[in-house]
Amino acid sequence: MLRYLIRRFMIMIPTLFFTSAIIFTVINLSPTDYFSNYVAELQAQGEKADMSRVEFLKREYGFDKPPVERYFLWVGGLLHGDYGYSFEYQLPVKDVVGDRLYLTILVSFSTILFTWLIAFPIGIYSATHQYSWADYGLTTLGLLGLAIPHFLLALLFMYFANVWFGLSIGGLMDPQYLNASMSWGKVRSVLAHVWIPVLIIGTAGTGAMIRTVRANLLEELQKQYVTTARAKGLHPFRILIKYPLRLAMNFFISDIGSILPSVVSGAELVAIVLSLQTTGPLLIHALQTQDMYLAGSFLMFLATLTIVGVLISDIALAFLDPRIRLQGGAR
Amino acid sequence: MNALPPSSGKLVHYVSDAPFDVQSVKRLTPEQERVYLASQWRLMWWKFKRHRLAVVASLVLLVLYGTIPFSEFLAPYNGSTRNTDFIRSPPQKMHLFHDGQFVGPFVYGKDYRLNMTDLKRDYTVNHANLQRIRFFCHGDPYQFWGLVPADVHLMCPADGGTLFLLGSDRLGRDVLSRMVYGARISLTVGLIGISISFLLGITIGGLAGYYGGWFDLLSQRAIEIVHSIPHIPLWLALAAVMPVTWSPMLVYFGITVILGLMDWTGLARAVRAKLLSLREEDYVLAARLMGAGTPRVLFRHLLPGFISHLIASATITIPSMILGETALSFLGLGLRPPVISWGVMLNEAQNMNVVALYPWLMLPVVPVILVILTFNFLGDGLRDAADPYN
After folding, report:
1. Which residue out of B61, B232, B245, B362 would a mutagenesis test of the A interface target, given it has the greatest number of A Cβ atoms within 10 Å?
2. Looking at the DSSP assignment, which residues form a beta bridge with residue B115?
3. What domain count does chain A have?
4. Membrane-spanning regions, if any (chain A) (predicted)?
5. pLDDT tens per residue, range B345-373
6. In this structure, what CATH number is given to the domain that contains residue A252?
7. pTM, two decimal places
């Protein structure tokens, strides 16, 4: 087990390295950069750009150096907690992201939790009642959530909440708490708002999850040990809980790592429509304005989160399933 | 088997004189024989048929894809024909009866008035203005398949009338026609994307699963890396790289390539996992002992074992590409307006005004939902059928 853990950790290091390299490359792929856009924009407005300042910033952030060197500067900064500087906001990335990070984590985790709570019972039911009308109905409902584009659902939600209930559901908290420090009122306000994005983002994940649970469980239910257990007179429910469900869970645990990026991606569009104070809109804006350190550091953060998620799910799998642990962890 | 003699009294020595058939126990009924002798694909078809929704879904998809070659003919207008007098006209209902009398399919014309208080265009139905829909008629001219000039449509508005069954958009273009044209792009984005990811997935996953070793390790890390970067930001960054000077068609191919490049990981994983378990099978060893080379083992013996699984999982990923296209177009980074796709149409439906005042502009979401649902059902059915020996 220890050998497996060490091996797994060692593998993570090159993964992180290459991920950062890819992110850096992708962000630098564009032929223009923030400064040239900035200068061009100012000139288009008939204003004169403060070239000395631009030159200073360019030097400060190593734009005169080759990209490879710049990359190592960036990664070196990341390693000791310096996430770089946002050109757009003229603040360190850490301060720009600030509170939004917690809200993003809150929204993402509530969404995942919501998805599991809904999808598991439905998936189990559909698998045990394959081809029944309830199976068709429930899977269709789940798929409907998958099929409706998020942004449209958010838009409709916003409109009808306003028309029918007179609710304003944009944002993640009441406006007066926006820049306020933490207080009970703020927490309550956030909790009162968070369920809407969770519901909207969760719909898609639920559909996919129902299908995964159903398919995996169905595969297990067809195996002979289930027939044996039934022939020996075990109660069907007990069989289900004791054997096939546990095996079907394996797949589910290995999925924990990859669920995060999809939740984050889905959340971005919804966050834009609902104007949530999460990181999604910030990131998209940063990508559009080529605010490279903000975008890059943030993407790197999300990627790291996922890689760690995969690591956790691998370790959990190894704990739960001796076959993986003994085979040295080839998945 | 012959019946035994009656068991009354003492048993006498008895030998049945009927010829003994050794196979009698093993013989199959014709019904069983049919099942046992059926080929793999036939078994799959039988199993697929049991998933009723999947059968319906495949029919719906066939119809939808069937419209692609005939968009110009099926749409009442051309995709970019502007009717400047009828901007954001609400849908016209199709009627059959006028004043209790049967007149055949027709629509009522609309009277237009600019509401001077809020500058909104008000359309009122004019019940005196009866416009019969013409069928197999001459309408907007087009180049059929870009080659043959033609102007025949399945249906067109009455002379001097209009036919906006699903309303018109902010330039007075018919939403229904645009939806028909949009199917071309939106339905094929997924196909081209999936071909790319299929190719990548099978090659990389296949090599990794069959050879293992360092290539396996490397590809596993690559998959993990691609997987760990959230998709939408990556799309965004890649879409931003495409030069603005590219023609809409090039952008379309760029987008499909991006969608495909992001999507192969799941498939590669599935291929690898299947190969890992299949390459240890006895029949593979047998093939190798008989002198089959690697390509032959791979393609002749291993691939048929799981190609059906691959097709099933590919079917399920097509919808995510279609949704990806709408998401990118929503952000304004996907396809651009001269191109008609459902995503581009929805891009115009993304503000509150539309929801409140012109809800028919959101109608392109209906085919999106329909296609995604049907692909999912089809994929489910295929997956259930993929392993027919259960």
Report:
1. B232
2. B120
3. 2
4. 9-29, 101-124, 136-161, 190-210, 247-274, 294-320
5. 888 877 777 777 788 888 888 888 888 88
6. 1.10.3720.10
7. 0.76
